[in-house]
């Protein structure tokens, strides 16, 4: 009856299956407004169900307004529910078209910011998760506050000291849902009074959108091989914040020298503004120790944003911010208003991962691995392009920038690459002022073996040359 077939061995209850089947027929217009539904006794007999099961399904439909039932009258389909038939056809056509297009094989994958998750010590992480779950008590399962698990902040402060030489108090650390969320909070703090945010140009388009979504007005400052050109900082402007990636400028790769860092701090002091330091992957430096953060120069002027997405795995969604004392009260208020806190289990497991130094060992191993891959991609580019390619920013991180003096890479090139199975991003995609970096490509290599790098560069050369 009604063309309904129920599966009695299915995990979904029979009343829920019946409710969904009738609901879908009403939405598709197979049961039109005003149509009578069978009586509960009749439908129960036809479908070999108990009458109570049918009554419960009807009650769900009545409660949600799909059908109308009044005492002494039959149950009818309510008015105004059927979806527009033309819309249904459009959706079906679109869905069918998407499914009909076969996925193109990927010949080369040079996406940026991709750690090699194949080498992450999953078993060790699973041990930490199990131990953390066993150790959590009832008091830990409630709201623990917007600052994050205290044990994690203690371990994070210790790790920052041994890995970066940073002397940070746990009370100044705020756990976030990844670096992007930290930037959203920083943008919310600094977006008032109509002030502007200075940002590197080019800079990561996703980070830029984090500010724009908060209504911030952006003022781009060009970068060169040493990062933001501080001699171009505007005079007389109302500046609230300065967004920089000083330890490994994204995407060009420069390291901001001390003289420019000092100039930024002096400028922030004069403007009563804050520097937002995004330190997204400087742990992976291949010619010496990681670069000291700007935060060490002026902890009262720098909001330091860090993440474990590259160090551990992106799905962890744990980042952190070191917040100047003057902003901490407002930061707590904003975080409480938005989503209160991060999930507790991941924080507890990460605290154990840090305490046992397993993260330290993993980072040390991956620094060697990524360093070998950096050499592999530099050699592959030299072999494929010879002197036609110049490399920027190859001493740190999981990507480099390749400049091709006589080439032009725009968004159309990006689309053609994807159609051809080559995943690569023009630097121009991250530029605010267009037209200055059209001859540069961003090549991520952290997630690729040397063999995959060599094959990918050959495919890219065949596509470009």
Could you estimate the helical fraction of the residues in percent? 40-55%
Averaging pLDDT over every residue, what do you get?
Answer: 89
* 3D shape: globular
Compute the number of strand runs.
16
Span of the ends, CA to CA: 65 Å
How many domains is the backbone divided into? Answer: 3
CATH architecture classification name of the largest domain:
3-Layer(aba) Sandwich
Unreliable stretches:
86-102
Say which CATH homologous superfamily of the largest domain is assigned: Type I PLP-dependent aspartate aminotransferase-like (Major domain)
Largest sheet: 8 strands, mixed
Q: Structural class, from helix and strand content? A: alpha/beta
Give a verbal description of the structure.
Keywords: Aminotransferase, Transferase. By secondary structure, this protein is an alpha/beta fold. The protein has three domains: 1-101, Winged helix-like DNA-binding domain superfamily/Winged helix DNA-binding domain (Arc Repressor Mutant, subunit A, Orthogonal Bundle); 108-117 and 363-464, Aspartate Aminotransferase, domain 1 (Alpha-Beta Complex); 120-360, 3-Layer(aba) Sandwich (Aspartate Aminotransferase, domain 2). The chain is 42% helix and 14% strand. The chain contains 14 helices and 16 strands. It has helices at residues 14-28, 40-47, 51-63, 85-100, 122-135, 150-164, 178-190, 205-212, 258-271, 325-338, 344-355, 358-385, 411-419, 450-464; strands at residues 67-68, 76-77, 108-109, 173-176, 196-201, 217-224, 227-228, 239-244, 274-278, 302-307, 319-322, 390-392, 399-403, 422-423, 425-426, 440-444. The strands form four sheets. Strands 4-11-10-9-8-5-6-7 form an eight-stranded mixed β-sheet, with helices on both faces. Helix 5 crosses helix 11. The radius of gyration is 28 Å and the shape is globular.
């Amino acid at each position: 009856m009604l063309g309904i077939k129920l599966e009695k061995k299915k995990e979904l209850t029979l009343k829920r299956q019946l409710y969904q089947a009738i609901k879908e027929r009403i939405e598709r217009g197979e049961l039109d407004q005003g149509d009578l539904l069978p009586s509960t006794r009749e439908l129960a007999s036809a479908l070999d169900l108990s009458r109570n099961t049918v009554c419960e399904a009807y009650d769900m439909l009545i409660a949600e307004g799909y059908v109308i039932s009044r005492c002494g009258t039959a149950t009818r389909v309510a008015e105004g529910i059927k979806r527009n038939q033309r819309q249904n056809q459009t959706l079906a056509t679109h869905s069918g078209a998407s499914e009909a297009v076969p996925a193109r094989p990927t010949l080369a994958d040079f996406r940026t910011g991709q750690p090699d998750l194949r080498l992450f010590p999953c078993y060790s992480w699973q041990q930490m998760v199990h131990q953390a779950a066993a150790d959590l008590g009832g008091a830990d399962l409630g709201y623990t506050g917007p600052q994050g698990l205290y044990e994690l902040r203690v371990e994070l402060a210790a790790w920052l000291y041994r890995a970066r030489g940073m002397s940070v108090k746990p009370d100044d650390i705020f756990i976030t849902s990844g670096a992007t969320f930290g930037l959203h909070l920083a943008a919310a703090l600094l977006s008032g009074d109509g002030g502007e945010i200075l940002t590197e140009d080019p800079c990561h388009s996703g980070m830029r959108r984090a500010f724009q979504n908060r209504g911030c007005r952006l003022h781009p400052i060009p970068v060169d091989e040493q990062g933001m050109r501080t001699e171009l900082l505007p005079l007389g402007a109302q500046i609230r914040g300065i967004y920089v990636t000083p330890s490994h400028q994204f995407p060009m790769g420069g390291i901001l020298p001390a003289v420019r860092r000092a100039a930024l701090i002096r400028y922030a002091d004069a403007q009563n503004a804050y520097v937002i330091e995004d330190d997204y992957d400087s742990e992976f430096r291949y010619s010496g120790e990681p670069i000291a953060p700007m935060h060490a120069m002026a902890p009262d002027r720098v909001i330091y944003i860090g993440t474990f997405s590259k160090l551990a795995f992106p799905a962890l969604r744990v980042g952190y911010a070191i917040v100047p004392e003057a902003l901490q009260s407002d930061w707590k208020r904003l975080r409480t208003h938005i989503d209160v806190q991060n999930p507790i289990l991941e924080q507890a497991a990460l605290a154990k991962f840090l305490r046992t130094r397993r993260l330290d060992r993993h980072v040390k191993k991956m620094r060697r691995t990524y360093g070998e891959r950096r050499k592999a991609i530099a050699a592959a580019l030299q072999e494929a392009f010879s002197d036609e390619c110049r490399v920027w920013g190859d001493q740190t991180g999981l990507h480099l920038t390749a400049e091709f003096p006589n080439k032009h890479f725009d968004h159309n090139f990006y689309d053609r690459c994807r159609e051809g199975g080559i995943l690569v991003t023009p630097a121009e995609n991250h530029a605010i002022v267009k037209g200055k970096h059209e001859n540069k490509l961003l090549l991520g290599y952290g997630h690729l073996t040397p063999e995959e790098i060599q094959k990918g560069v050959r495919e890219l050369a065949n596509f470009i040359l």
